[in-house]
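Today's session is about reading a structure prediction critically. Students often jump straight to the picture, but the first step is always the sequence itself: look for stretches that repeat, for charged clusters, for runs of hydrophobic residues. Only then move on to the predicted structure, which in these notes is written as discrete structure tokens rather than atom positions. Here is the chain we will use throughout the hour.
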Amino acid sequence: MTSTSTGTWPPRADCVADSAGGVTFDMAGEPSPGAALVLRRRGGKGAAAEMRLPLTPSGEGRLRAVLPSTVELAEGRWDAFTTLGDGAAEQRVEPGLRDLRSLVDRAPETDRAQVAVRIPYPTADGSLAVRCWLRSPHAESGALAFAQGAMTVEGRLYGTGLAAGAVVEARLRADKDQVHRVPVTGTGGGAFAFTLPYGPLAEGRGDEQRLWDLWLCPTGPHGAAGVRIGRILDDIWEKKGVFRYPVLPVEGADVSRPTTAYPYFTVDNDLSVRLDTARQPTP
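Below is the predicted structure for this chain, in token form.
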């Protein structure tokens, strides 16, 4: 079905994301006063939860909206709509072609004050949205390795430096007062590494599941609040269920129940560790 005002029905936008955080949206349509692509933050309220980007001609029968990297968007998921202006009803936008090549293996300068990431993606119902992160400072998780009931994480810190007493804190999500700390090694250029044994995370555990969130404290445990460790500098808008790591048995003198542990990325692409009761083999 074709609409004489918007070009196609439902409206569909091709997207190009750049490494600086900018996104362009191209779609079929004819110029109309007040026409705009509207980004609305899911669960947000007030003027700060809406961004209107003018739709302007970009060729015969084509319109373009531009989200500059210099325009700040709060962290979250922003749903895309179009409107012809003058009180016209909004329409949800479907995703067309998405060019995310510039986001692959992205490596910003480590001295930048904040890291901004915008990834256009298809929602579960087939609509277009933009996943945004805005972090200052930011601790990017890199490679993970596993040996002897522990995991080793390499990463890079942006927006601040590492002090001599830097640590990583594993904070129990159900009880923020329970914290396990391990030292951090800095190797220059913002690079860091740490090894987290699973045994101490299981001490005193009953049958409950335990979720531990990982935070980097660049100035030590008594410094700033900490930097959440995550992985956002690529083209994957939701890593949960995509990145899978080994499920290992947890051993130690104070581990009284059969327990397994594995790292995973949350719905916000932050790094956590999950502990469960080990499954018993079927007789």
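Discussion point for the tutorial: Residues 142 and 264 are 13 Å apart (CA to CA).
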